[in-house]
Amino acid sequence: MFILKRQDVEIGSFQHPSKEQKIPILSYQGQTFRLLSVFNAAQEEEARTLWRDLTDNRGKACVLLEEPERFSVWGKIQLERSSGETPPPTAATANGVSNVFVKAGLLIIQAMYEDIDDLMGGKQAKRFEGDLTEIGKQMRLPQMTSEDLVIGLLRMDPFSAALPPWQTNHLNTIFTELHRIGRNYFGRSNFTDRALEALDDLSPPERDAFLKWLKQLSSGQLWQ
């Protein structure tokens, strides 16, 4: 939608509805945008790839902010919703899948990535990025078909409005494959419990709705 410089915009913050943290927001010509991903100065192409995917392929209203030390991608929001209650668990995307379920899937992926990085180091975390990319290519999973898109996914704010356009079949495949490759990294240790702790970032009704829905998937038994 827009490629802007720092002098073109105003940057402030608002209180996260369920966490003790401030969320950066960007204002431009009366419109408000929420921070989705940040890239360093050497990652210009990755930033542009994510921005183009969101704007061209998914029709999202986004800003690519160019600064001397970094690039950042921002997604349009309505401020009156940003500080209010979280959407109910039944709120659905255009493809009929609850936003909550997509959000939960993204939280779990990012939790596994962080666990691998913390416990095994950057080399194994990079390998995990490659595993996700390979799965995305083979299974034709939206926003997972290239390394740049996967990196953007791992850095994406799960509480942004610009969630991946995953449907039930995509999420079922993701949970099946995540469990398979998780066993490769963690063996028989109970890594699923650690990954599911990421769901504590959801509101209790959202968390309960997701876990109930997960049990209905063929991959759900792997995560019990």
Summarize the structure.
It contains 8 helices and 6 strands, in the order ββββαββααααααα.
Tally of DSSP β-strands? 6
Low-confidence stretches: 80-96
First-to-last CA distance: 42 Å
- Note the total helix count: 8
Q: Taking all residues together, what is the mean pLDDT?
A: 82
Element string (H = helix, E = strand): EEEEHEEHHHHHHH
* Whole-number count of domains: 2
- Spatial ordering of strands, largest sheet: 1-5-6-4-3-2
Radius of gyration: 17 Å
Class derived from helix and strand content: alpha+beta
* Main beta sheet: 6 strands, mixed
Globular, elongated, flat, extended or rod-shaped: what is the shape? Answer: globular
Strand-residue proportion: 15-25%
The level of helicity is 40-55%
Description:
The protein folds into 2 domains: 2-82, Phosphorylase Kinase, domain 1, CATH 3.30.200; 99-223, no CATH class. The protein has 8 helices and 6 strands, in the order ββββαββααααααα. The protein has helices spanning 44-57, 79-82, 99-120, 122-139, 147-155, 168-186, 191-196, 204-215, and strands at 2-5, 10-15, 22-28, 31-40, 62-66, 70-77. Helix 3 (99-120) runs antiparallel to helix 4 (122-139), helix 3 packs parallel to helix 6 (168-186) and helix 4 crosses helix 5. The termini are far apart. The model is unreliable at 80-96 (pLDDT under 50).
